[in-house]
Amino acid sequence: MNFFESIVKYLIYIANIVFLICGVLIIVLGSFMVGNLGDFSSFEEAINVDTLPIIIIILGCIIFVISFFGCCGAIRENSCCMTTYAVFMFILFCLQVALVVWVFIKRDDFLKTMTDLVDTAWNQNDSAKGYPMDALQLSFKCCGKTNYTDYITADKDVPVSCCGSLDIKECPADVYQTKPGCTAEFVGFWATNTNIIRYAGIAVAAIELAVLTIACCLASSMRNSRRH
Fold first, then answer.
1. CA 67 to CA 20: how far, in whole Å?
2. Is residue 110 situated within a structural domain?
3. What is the pLDDT of residue 45?
4. What is the mean pLDDT of the chain?
5. Gyration radius from the chain CA atoms
6. 122 within a domain of the structure (yes/no)
7. Which of 47, 111, 159, 227 is deepest in the core (most CB within 10 A)?
8. What's the whole-model pTM score?
9. Which of 118, 120, 126 is closest to 142 using CA atoms?
């Protein structure tokens, strides 16, 4: 292997170390999203809420595994391992582009669905449905749809979940009056995370495409070197 090929080999190795770290960070992001949803995801109308975070976690795991193949193939100068890595990287690139395109196209519709979800939780906030607003208010530290006045307008008592706990008997006004509305907090949560997904996804996909091209060239060079 000549000097140029050696440089390329170590560049791929370093790039895959970065991808390993990115894979871990993506898994952490997906886990954070799932964790932040708390018990609200158990609300039967919210069955699709966990879908996007789970996809993110799976994508992070795939990136982690593929990057491991890339590191092994580059360091061991194994053309078979490097070819396998290139194929997997192509599949990963396609999946990531599909996810980013979906988020760009469907983001507004998705956020509208999340807004409707809060409306549904408010309208079905009874014992039969398990008081979904309580789970939402605990998870996102909010109160009511717009703010606490929604309960006053509906002639209802402000629930203790507006104070962040179900273990107290009454929620003090000076606490719940400072809480933002759940629609703004819930939709804002998804707006922020979908922005992270689409813009970070573009950057990572561009790097993956560059590494994929280099990996194909390197695999071809390794095969030619073995023939000679």
1. 6
2. no
3. 58
4. 82
5. 24
6. no
7. 159
8. 0.76
9. 118
